[in-house]
Amino acid sequence: MSYIKRQGLRIGAFVLLLAVYLSDSILLELATKYANKNAALTDKYVGAMLIMAASVLVLYTWLYHRQLKQYNPRHFGHQAFNWHRITQLLLAFILMLAVQIAWSQLITHHLLPMPSNQSALDGEIQQLPLWNTVYGVLFAPVFEEYLFRGLFFNFFFSKNSLWSNLIGVFVSGLIFGYLHTMAFSVTTLFYASLGWVLAGTYLYFKDIRYSITLHFLNNLWAVV
Question: Residue 78 belongs to what domain range?
Fold first, then answer.
């Protein structure tokens, strides 16, 4: 199989996996839409979202570990949590907080606009607080780390080389930022910078649980 055809199939597979995740998010949006209008319909959408979320988790986990069994030159796996690694993870979290604090200061001083998707998210949490919070804090970090870090690197930047790592981190963060804004803007850079920290964390610790934990802490901080 030619390189172009192989990459085309990988891109198609990645887009399909992304569509699956976005479809689950749409179910939550529909549940939120009817939260104050039709309780029965809201419950049905929430139930469908939970069933699909479980299916997405099984699919992502199976595919990710299947890919690592086939080709894993970076030796990704489970690295034991210890105080040294926990301290390093906390430093990465502080870095993410520093990015957010700096960005919020620029917004406060009217140098940058408020991210439109953040305003929309705040509104959704007010309409359906429990499930939007649960999804944003618990579900999204797992799905997005498997998709934008684990599966992304397995598909496109699996070689263990300096250039593969650097370009992979850059592109991973850029896609992550774009999909949070759905348009290239200065706000895309903000989300991309968070994506770069998460991608760097994944490659540094060689264990996707660390970037998931970091993503969880970041999202929890945002809603506390």
Answer: 3-223
